[in-house]
Amino acid sequence: MNRKKQVKEYTYTVCKRCILNNGPLTYTTFDDKGICNNCRNFEALAKKTLWISRNRNNKKLKDILSTIKKVRGRSGYDCILGLSGGADSSYLAYMAHAWGLHPLVVHFDNGWNSEIAVKNIHAIVNKLGYDLYTYVIDWDEFRDIQLAYVKASVIDLEVPTDHFIYATLYEIAQKRGIKYILDGNNIATEFPGGSWKWNYSKIDLINLLNIHKKFGTIKLRKFPKLGLFQRLYYQHIARIKTVYLLNYVDYNKKKAKETLKKELGWKDYGGKHYESIFTRFYQGYMLPKKFNIDKRRIHFSNLIWSGQMTRREALRELKKPTYSKRDQELDKTYVLKKFGLHSEEFEKMMRAPIVPHEVYGTEDQKYSLLIYILTRVMRISNSIKKKVN
Ligand SMILES: [Zn+2]
After folding, report:
1. Which residues surround ligand 1, an ion (CB under 5 A)?
2. Which among 148, 272, 299, 358 counts the fewest CB atoms within 10 Å?
3. What spacing in Å lies between the alpha carbon of 12 and ligand 1's midpoint?
4. What InterPro entries does its record include (predicted)?
């Protein structure tokens, strides 16, 4: 049976509260009221974090900010902030200034920045008086890894970019003696649920290297890596912590964008994560066409959960194309040219059967015993700490 037929024959059920559906590439299940597990998971987490009283949230935020401010690194920064030019990280940069933090702003240039993203970054840094460190990836290596992922027919083509961002942030923090990394991820707009298979682990270096070994063509000499041992070193010996400060404020995407436009001359670039041309093409063209996934379902559902969009609005928006057909074609030409791919080769890759990431081997499989022992040791050490306290 070919894939198109499989997709066509699958009958989707859509959640009655959000707009997520089930399907072969999700773990979505429904209760007897037709509400999905993602809605329930969000509720449970939000009760513990988002919906706790304003005063308690404020106190927590104050405590975290004063802890961050206590440790200035060798170069005078108390934290690092990764800035993509998108709404979440831009708003975090704006708030960090209001909170009196001194971040070193780091931007990752993986070769796919849109013009608007670059303008946004410079506007923010200039207006807020931040120092900007732009890390430019070796394009030949990065192109080789991204292409390897496309050839491997796996679903999460964003792993190389995200891996590279996390690895670089840790590396810079460690070199400069900075103990805190500010991350724009947040529950209100980016709930880290595990109910969809398009989101593969961004820190699985074994999977990344195996995919590249099989489908890559050049040696990786400069690509920043974040394996299990590097993570253990950064987190437990260098004691570098990642903090998600947008979870402590009433983060409303629409209001945040208005503030950014008014205060910093920031410009909107359309869909979520569309500040990168590759991401726009991957989310708006490749995911729907090859994997039959419309990522807007999760983005809009997230806004429904946090009370920033109604279900009706979400369904109405979903009927529109991911972005204009004309821009999709322009992006396709641009992406193929940048990758050095012929149209026929690309179409063949688009038609190839989907392969789960796990097929190529994972960190969990390779270090299963070590991970088991480490988890046990950490559990025991945490319970001792709790008892002592
Ligand atoms: Zn739901």
Report:
1. 15, 17-18, 20, 36, 39
2. 358
3. 13
4. N-acetyl_sugar_amidoTrfase, Rossmann-like_a/b/a_fold
